[in-house]
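Q: Can I borrow your eye for a moment on a structure tokenisation matter? Would you mind producing a protein record, from residues through to fold? Write it directly below this note and I will take it from there.
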Amino acid sequence: MAAPISRPHVFVKGTEAGLTFFLSEESSFGELRDELRRKVREAQGRFSSGPPVPVVLHLGRRRFSSEREEELIRILEEGGSFRVREIRADVFPEEECTAFGARSAQVYLGPVRSGEHVAATGDLLVVGDVHGGAKVEGREAVYVLGRLAGEARVREATGIVVAGSLRAALLVIGDLHLAGADIPEEYRDLPGFAVQVGGEVAVFPYREFRRLRMRGPEGLRPEA
């Protein structure tokens, strides 16, 4: 009887900007840590000369504690061959959901599939993906803890759409909308949010959320 084929816990993909390490969502932290350490040792010989290779660490649809994420960074950067420039995940940590105000939202356990329309009288929190052809709607906010590929609508002009990946077909905030084709390509696979700024719907990477909280939507305008 043939032995079962074991799936890798860590998958490495080369890009023009460096390397991306994808961590399996089905593996335990110990399995990920051990295989990541082994793959780093195997790869260091190929990248020992020259400057450190930029690395993106992709956690999938989960997050670890800051201590565990720092441990993974240390493993990657041991030996000096790699430099972690970004940690990506298709969900937001619990404390960030609290900052968004998502704790008070109506929760829908996804995914939301094509043809489905999920609407909340207040704010909406979708735990899962929103597939293409699906619609989600809330009063002042829609939070998608996963990939947003369908349509998201908030009824208030001061509202916000937040997602782990903004490949939306359509974003509607108040009376304004942004077609998916007009979402900047560099933001589509990153956690981000959309708000009204200067009479239009605009998309921003999640790192700009602190500026939104401190200064409001007008604070997101480029400085002259």
Q: What stands out?
A: The chain is about 20% helix and 35% strand. The longest helix spans residues 29-44. The two ends are 69 Å apart (CA to CA).
